[in-house]
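explain this.
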Amino acid sequence: MRVLLVEDRPEAEKFVWKALSQSWWGGASLECRPSFSSALDTLKRESFDMILIDFAAAGLQNPEGFARLGMLAQKWPVIVLIDEFETDRLANSRDLGIKNWLVKETLTPSRLADAVRKAAGVSAVPRGS
């Protein structure tokens, strides 16, 4: 499982890596890009199975940003990490195909790992594999 993370805070990248490495059965790799534009450049050259996006870091808090997220969601499973105060923005997002939102303030490594497995269509992680 190759995951592209759009995040500009090193501590958040470490949190995501911890969640993936503790919960995915050794097959997860994580690439991090600090901005949406650098992530788009990376997606042109490399293949990923899933995209995790920090909504604030990606600078997508406008209608054009939502549309760009919707375009990504048509090609890859996308999980968007948002701050609690941004949850009012979720109402229109489902129409764009963005179904996976996690609120950062309540996020735990196990919740993130579960969301990644669900978005990837994996029901359970084989233990000892």
